[in-house]
Design goal:
This protein has about 140 residues and is mainly alpha-helical. The chain is built from eight helices and no strands. Helix 4 packs antiparallel against helix 5 and helix 5 packs parallel to helix 7.
């Protein structure tokens, strides 16, 4: 999914009947705009929503919400990792997901969430039986 921008993401959440999900994104963005950042609770709630979207197979919603949070809180590696997982589950834009995962590993090699994101991409790029291609 291409970056639609903050307002387009909010409009999309409202149009899909997900107004409740837009509220923390809007509030968090306002706080960042004021230089205050997110509270740990807000970030935990966003992470839970993106992760739950993955398991509920509501991947479009997971990508929309995850990208909104990741663009305003790039240090939120868990949100970014679950966004990559949702993006790969859609099987639409593996190049963007791979770029995101590679960037996470390059910038944060100590984080298990970086490696989770890369593993999720590789699982989709190299399905069972192509181990040689994945390692090669």
């Amino acid at each position: 999914m291409k970056d639609q921008g903050f307002l387009a993401t909010i409009r999309s959440l409202f149009s899909r009947g997900r107004a409740w999900a837009a509220i923390p994104v809007i509030l968090g963005s306002l706080l960042i705009g004021c230089g205050k950042g997110f509270t740990p609770e807000e970030l935990a709630e966003a992470t839970a929503q993106v992760r739950e979207a993955y398991y509920a197979q509501d991947h479009y919603f997971g990508v929309e919400l995850g990208e909104a949070w990741a663009s305003t809180a790039p240090e939120a590696l868990e949100v970014r990792a679950w966004t990559v997982a949702n993006l790969m589950a859609l099987r639409m834009d593996g190049g963007e997901a791979r770029r995101m995962a590679d960037e996470m590993v390059a910038d944060h090699p100590e984080s298990p969430w970086s490696w989770f994101a890369l593993a999720r991409v590789l699982m989709s790029e190299y399905p069972r039986g192509t181990k040689e291609e994945a390692l090669g």
